[in-house]
Design a protein that fits this description.
The structure holds 2 protein chains of 2 kinds. Chain A is of the alpha/beta class. Chain A has 2 domains: 235 residues, 3-Layer(aba) Sandwich (Rossmann fold), CATH 3.40.50; 191 residues, P-loop containing nucleotide triphosphate hydrolases (Rossmann fold), CATH 3.40.50. Chain A has a 6-stranded mixed sheet, sandwiched between helices. The longest helix of chain A is centred in the middle third of the chain and has 16 residues. By secondary structure, chain B is mainly α. Chain B has one domain. In chain B, the strands form 2 sheets. Chain B has a two-stranded antiparallel ribbon. The longest helix of chain B has 27 residues. Chain B is globular and about 70 Å long. The chains are: A alpha/beta, B mainly alpha. Chains A and B meet through helix 10, helix 11, strand 20 and helix 15 of A and helix 9 and helix 10 of B. Adenosine-5'-triphosphate sits at the interface of chains A and B.
C-alpha cells in the first residue's frame, strides 16, 4: 500500500498528549483516565464504537470542553484552554463530526467566520475569496466561494468544513469523521492533502468508522472502548482484524445478502421519474426502477448523482416533474408524506441534523415521532404504550443512551443516527428507503442494521439502500444499481466486483 | 456490542452539589419565584393588595392576558408568532357588540336579535377565521409569520374601526323581551366567588395542557417548532399544524374579546391595542423559547400572572403610568435574561454542533 509512511521511524515524539483524562456528563462517564499522544508530523487514528468517547476526547483537546480531571500537555507543558479560540491560537484546529457551518452564509464567509481578513476600511473580501478558491482547488472541488452553504449537498458542506480547518494553517489538525459524506474519489483527494500536510510537519488526529479507508492513512492506531484506552500500536503492527478485535471484542464481517427465499410481487415501482432542481437541470432524469418484496437494492453513486433527490421524491418531499411512484400497484404520486408512511413507505434521510432529528425533543419522542398513531388510544396518547415502543426501538437498534427521556444532543453522533433509523423502522414499513444510513455508525452497529434489514427482507420488506461505500453494496444487496447524473448507468447482481461498480459510476478506481 | 445499561442512571441524575441545585430550582421555577416576590413586595407596600377581593379582581384582569397568552404559546411552540391577537380581540368584541344590537335583515324588513349563545359562537368563528387567514398566508403562501400577522393586525383593527365608525357599543345588556340577555354573565358573574372569566381561563388551560401533552396534535406542535423539516419527513402534517395553531390562537383572542367586552359592558374598536405584546411577554416570561419547540402552559400562565399582578400592583400603590411601563419592561427583560441562562449556560457540556443540550428540561409540562 502506497500509504505506508516512510517517516514511521521518526515517531515517539508527542507534540500533544492527554494524561489521565476523565470526563463525566452528570453521572455518565464518557472518558475514564485516558492517555493519548498525538505524534508530530504523523497521523494518529482513533478507533472505537459509537459512544466510546472519541469526539469527547477530541473536544477536550481542542478546548471546546474542559476535562473533569487529568491534564493536557502541549509541547511538554501542561495547558488549560478556556475556549476553542485559545486552542486555535496555539495551533490546534478541529473538523467537527457534526457540521458547524452557518447555512445562510456563503462558503467564503463560513471559511473565514470569526477570522475575517481585516483592512483599515473593513474586510478584504477579495483576498478571502481568492484564498477560498485556492483551498477548493487544493481539494479538487468545483465550488464557487460565493455559493450559500445551504445550497450545497451534504458532502460539499463537509468539504467546506475541511477547508475551513485547513485555512487556519494549524500544526495540529483534528478530524472527527471528515469523510462520512464523501465519495471515494474525494477521500483520495483528502488523503493526498493529509500526506502533504504531514510532509509539512502537521500532526493529525483522524477518526473514522470506515476502517479500511482509515488504515490507508494511519501511522498510529489507538482504540477507545467505553471511555478506556484499550489498545495502541504503530501501523506496521496492525491490520483490520486487530482493530475490529480491539473495538468490539471479537471478529466478524458484515455478512452477505440474505438468501434462501423467493421475492414477492413488485412492492415499489418508480416509473419514468424526473426531478428538477431550482436551476432547471434534471437531477433525476427519467429514471425507472422496480423493487420486489423481500429484495434489497443498493443504489451506488458519486455525490451529486441524484440519489438523495430520487429517494426524497419517492418519499413525497417536493413534486415530481414527471412520472409516477407506485406502492404495491397503487399510485401514490399525489399522496403526502404522512399518507405514504401510513401506507408503508418510509425514508431514512441522509442529513440527520437537518432532516432526521428534532433537537428540542427527547430521544424517546424522536423515536416515536413517525409512529404516533401506534400509541394513540381514542384521542389521547398512551404514555405507557409509547414507552414500550421507545424501549423496544432503543433495544432494536442498540442506541446507547440513558433512556427515552435523555436529550437527543447527549447522544454520540452514531447513536443519533441509530435513532433516525429506529424511528423509521418503528413505522413498520413495507418499503424502506435508506439514504446513506451508515453515516457515522460503527461496524458493530452497521452489522446490526444489516442484520435487521436482512431479517425484515425475509419477511417481505423491500429495501432501497443508497450508499457511496462499495463494500456495503456487496454485503447487503441482491441487486446493485449504479447511478450517474440522474440516470442508471449500470446494474449488477450480488457477485460483481468492487472495481466494476466503481468503473460504472465514472469513478477512477483507487487502490 | 454496545451496552445500553451501563449508563442507566440517566443523564438526568446529575450529581447534587448543594448550591448548584438551589440555582437550578430558582431558574426552573423563576416565574413562580417572581410571582411570589411581586406578591410579597406589594403586600408590604399596600394593605389592600393582599386580600381575596383584590386577588379576584386582579385574576379577572389576568384572565384576558392569560387567554391570549395560551393561544400565543401554542403558536410560538411551532416557531411562529401571532401579532394579530390584540386586533382580533378588538374586532371580535366589536362584532359581538354589533350582534347584540340586533341584525337588520332587509328582505324581511325586521331586526333579528340573536341570543347570547349564538353571538358567542359567531364571534369565536370569526376569531377562528382570522386565524385561518394567518395560517394560510404562513403555511401555503410562505409569508413569514411576523409579516403576515402584522398585516392582519392592521387589517383587523381597521375593519373594527370601519364597522363602528370609531364609536363604542355601550348597550350590551340585551333586553328580556328580545331574549338576548346574559352577555354580562361572562364578565360579572362568579361561581363560588371566582369570576367566570377566570374559570374560562382555567378551562382553556386544561384543554391546552391535554392537547399539548396527550394528543398527537401536541406532538406535531412541538416537533414542527423543533425542526419542521424533520417533522415533515416523519409524517407530521406541518401545514395543517401551522394553520391549526393560528386558528386556535384566533379563537382564544375571540374568547378574550368576549370576556373583556362583557367585563366592561362595552365594546370599543380600540380594545386590546398592544395586548399581543403583553401575551408574548407572558409566554416568554413563562420560559418558552421564541425559536419554537420549548415551553409549556404552566409557565405561560405564571407569566401572565406575573405581568398582571405586577401592573395591577403598580396601579394600587399609585406609581405613575409612565413608571408602570418602565417596570413592566424591566421585568420582561430580566425574565428573558434568565431564559438565556437557562438555555445556554446551564448544560455546560454543549456539543460543538451548536445544538443546545437540555438534559433536565422536558418541553411538555403539566398545569401547576
Ligand atoms: N453533552 C453531553 N451530555 C451527556 N452525555 C454526553 C454528552 N456528550 C457526549 N455524551 C456521552 O458521552 C459518551 C461518549 O460520546 P462521544 O460523542 O465522545 O462518542 P464517540 O466515540 O464520538 O461516538 P460516535 O462514533 O458515535 O461519534 C456517550 O455515551 C454520550 O452519550
Ligand atoms: Mg463522535
Amino acid at each position: 500500500m502506497s500509504a505506508l509512511p516512510k517517516a514511521a521511524h521518526t515517531d515517539g515524539e508527542a507534540v500533544m498528549s492527554a494524561r489521565n483524562v476523565a470526563k463525566f456528563f452528570g453521572s455518565v462517564r464518557a472518558l475514564n483516565g485516558v492517555n493519548f499522544d498525538i505524534h508530530r508530523g504523523q497521523v494518529t487514528t482513533l478507533f472505537g464504537e459509537n459512544g466510546a468517547g472519541k469526539s469527547t476526547l477530541m473536544k477536550i483537546l481542542a478546548g471546546i470542553q474542559p476535562p473533569t480531571s487529568g491534564e493536557i500537555i502541549l509541547d511538554g507543558e501542561p495547558v488549560r484552554f478556556s475556549s476553542s479560540t485559545e486552542a486555535r491560537n496555539r495551533g490546534i484546529s478541529i473538523i467537527h463530526q457534526e457540521l458547524s457551518l452557518a447555512p445562510n452564509l456563503s462558503v467564503r464567509d463560513n471559511i473565514f467566520m470569526g477570522r475575517e481578513i481585516r483592512t483599515a476600511t473593513g474586510v478584504n473580501f477579495a483576498e478571502e475569496a481568492r484564498l477560498t478558491k485556492a483551498l477548493m482547488e487544493e481539494l479538487e472541488e468545483d465550488i464557487d466561494p460565493m455559493t450559500l452553504v445551504e445550497d450545497l449537498r451534504l458532502g460539499q458542506q463537509q468539504i467546506v468544513e475541511i477547508a475551513r480547518a485547513l485555512s487556519v494553517n494549524s500544526r495540529i489538525l483534528i478530524m472527527d469523521e471528515p469523510t462520512s459524506a464523501l465519495s471515494a474519489t474525494e477521500v483520495e483527494v483528502l488523503f493526498k492533502v493529509i500526506r502533504d500536510l504531514k510532509s509539512r510537519g502537521v500532526s493529525i488526529v483522524y477518526i473514522s468508522h470506515h476502517l479500511e479507508e482509515a488504515l490507508q492513512i494511519t501511522d498510529h492506531a489507538v482504540v477507545l472502548r467505553d471511555g478506556n484506552m484499550t489498545a495502541k500500536a504503530p501501523r506496521s503492527e496492525i491490520d483490520l482484524e486487530w482493530i475490529v478485535r480491539n473495538m468490539v471484542g471479537d471478529n466478524f464481517d458484515l455478512g452477505s445478502p440474505p438468501t434462501g427465499y423467493e421475492f414477492g410481487d413488485v412492492a415499489l415501482s418508480i416509473d419514468d421519474v424526473v426531478v428538477t432542481e431550482a436551476s432547471g437541470a434534471n437531477v433525476v432524469d427519467h429514471m425507472s426502477l422496480q423493487v420486489r418484496a423481500g429484495e434489497i437494492v443498493c443504489i451506488y453513486g458519486l455525490m451529486g448523482a441524484g440519489r438523495t433527490e430520487l429517494l426524497e421524491a419517492v418519499a413525497g418531499r417536493g413534486e415530481l416533474m414527471n412520472g409516477k411512484v407506485l406502492l404495491e400497484g397503487e399510485d401514490v404520486s399525489g399522496a403526502t408524506i404522512a399518507e405514504r408512511i401510513a401506507k408503508g413507505l418510509s425514508l431514512v434521510p441522509e442529513d440527520r441534523q437537518r432532516d432526521g432529528l428534532v433537537q428540542t425533543m427527547t430521544v424517546g419522542k424522536n423515536l416515536s415521532l413517525a409512529s404516533i398513531g401506534a400509541f394513540v388510544k381514542g384521542c389521547f396518547t398512551s404514555p405507557q404504550r409509547e414507552r414500550e415502543l421507545v424501549d423496544e426501538s432503543i433495544r432494536r437498534v442498540t442506541v446507547k443512551t440513558a433512556g427515552g427521556g435523555a436529550a437527543i444532543g447527549s447522544l454520540s453522533g452514531g447513536n443519533q443516527q441509530k435513532v433516525v433509523i429506529g424511528k423509521m423502522l418503528a413505522t413498520n414499513p413495507k418499503v424502506l428507503l435508506l439514504d446513506e444510513p451508515s453515516r457515522g455508525i460503527d461496524i458493530g452497529a452497521k452489522a446490526e442494521v444489516f442484520r435487521l434489514i436482512a431479517e425484515r427482507a425475509r419477511q417481505g420488506l423491500a429495501v432501497i439502500y443508497s450508499t457511496s461505500e462499495v463494500g456495503e453494496c456487496l454485503s447487503v444487496a441482491h441487486r446493485i444499481i449504479v447511478m450517474a447524473r440522474g440516470k442508471i448507468s449500470a446494474e449488477f447482481g450480488p457477485d460483481v466486483s468492487k472495481e466494476q461498480i466503481m468503473a460504472a459510476s465514472g469513478e477512477s478506481v483507487v487502490e | 456490542m454496545t451496552t445500553a445499561n451501563k449508563t442507566a442512571q440517566g443523564v438526568q441524575g446529575a450529581p447534587s452539589r448543594g448550591g448548584i441545585d438551589i440555582v437550578r430550582i430558582l431558574l426552573e421555577g423563576r416565574a413562580f419565584f417572581a410571582l411570589i416576590v411581586i406578591i410579597v413586595v406589594f403586600s408590604m407596600l399596600s394593605p389592600v393588595y393582599f386580600s381575596t377581593a383584590n386577588f379576584l379582581v386582579m385574576a379577572s384582569h389576568v384572565a384576558i392576558y392569560g387567554l391570549l397568552a395560551i393561544g400565543m404559546l401554542v403558536v410560538i411552540l411551532t416557531g411562529g408568532i401571532d401579532l394579530s391577537v390584540g386586533s382580533t380581540l378588538g374586532l371580535c368584541g366589536v362584532v359581538a357588540g354589533a350582534l347584540m344590537q340586533g341584525v337588520e335583515i332587509e328582505v324581511l324588513g325586521s331586526i333579528f336579535y340573536p341570543s347570547v349563545w349564538v353571538v358567542v359562537v359567531l364571534t369565536c368563528a370569526l376569531g377562528g377565521f382570522i386565524g385561518a387567514v394567518n395560517g394560510v398566508l404562513i403555511a401555503y403562501l410562505k409569508v413569514p409569520a411576523f409579516v403576515a400577522t402584522l398585516g392582519v393586525l392592521y387589517c383587523a383593527r381597521g375593519v373594527a374601526l370601519l364597522l363602528t365608525n370609531g364609536l363604542t357599543y355601550n348597550n350590551l345588556g340585551g333586553q328580556p323581551e328580545l331574549g338576548n340577555t346574559g352577555f354580562d354573565w361572562l364578565g360579572f358573574n362568579t361561581f363560588f366567588n371566582v369570576p367566570i372569566g377566570v374559570l374560562v381561563l382555567v378551562a382553556l388551560a386544561i384543554i391546552a395542557v391535554i392537547l399539548l401533552n396527550r394528543t398527537a396534535f401536541g406532538r406535531w406542535v412541538y416537533s414542527t417548532g423543533g425542526n419542521a423539516r424533520a417533522a415533515e419527513l416523519s409524517g407530521v402534517p406541518v401545514k395543517f399544524t401551522t394553520i391549526s395553531v393560528y386558528v386556535f390562537s384566533g379563537i382564544c383572542a375571540a374568547v378574550a374579546g368576549l370576556v373583556l367586552s362583557s367585563q366592561l359592558t362595552s365594546a370599543g374598536p380600540t380594545a386590546g391595542t398592544t395586548y399581543e405584546l403583553t401575551a408574548i411577554a407572558a409566554v416568554v416570561v413563562g420560559g418558552a423559547a421564541l425559536t419554537g419547540g420549548r415551553g409549556n402552559v404552566r409557565g405561560t400562565l405564571l407569566g401572565a400572572f406575573v405581568i398582571g399582578f405586577l401592573s395591577d400592583g403598580l396601579v394600587i400603590i399609585g406609581v405613575s403610568a409612565y413608571w408602570q411601563t418602565v417596570f413592566t419592561g424591566a421585568v420582561i427583560v430580566l425574565a428573558v435574561l434568565m431564559n438565556s441562562i437557562q438555555y445556554a449556560k446551564r448544560p455546560k457540556p454543549l456539543p460543538a454542533s451548536g445544538n443546545p443540550v437540555i438534559p433536565q428540561k422536558e418541553p411538555a409540562g403539566k398545569l401547576a
